[in-house]
Amino acid sequence: xxxxxxxxxxxxxxxxxxxxxxxxxxxxxxxxxxxxxxxAQLRSKARAVRIxxxxxxxxIVGEFDIVYFAGVLYHLKHPLLGLERVASxxxxxxxxIIESYVEDFPEQDPLLRFLPGDEVNKDPTNWFAMSSAxxxxxxxxxxxxxxEVLSFGxxxxxxxxxxxxx
Length: 166
What we know:
The protein contains four helices and nine strands; from the N terminus they run ββαβαβαβββαββ. It is α+β, with helices and mostly antiparallel strands and 166 residues long.
């Protein structure tokens, strides 16, 4: 089973985002026209649920083998809390796939730049630009061991496993 938590169809701190709870098959995660089209074409058993990332909890949405978290992190006012909530719905031994905007700074330190206004892509819901090192530090703090699997422009994709919580 998998859950796809996305924000491309709505902003996390500006509007509700979506979580497509997917059972046995993949489909589009966006809770809108694209989601409905893919859902019908694939005869999916997925159900779309509007929920804040901060409200994700295994008792509310369950636990999943695969958790997709694409295009959300830099929209969060509380990115570390968001990562912890996402990790909480991944089954032990499961995988979290994270895609995010990365801004590399001359320093190799884990840096976050606060984005007041709309300076990145003219989008006022982008709260932080984070370095690669900041992403890795946050992943580790959220008990995720991540490896970068894809890089395109200022975007990165990581495949993550939960670290033992003992």
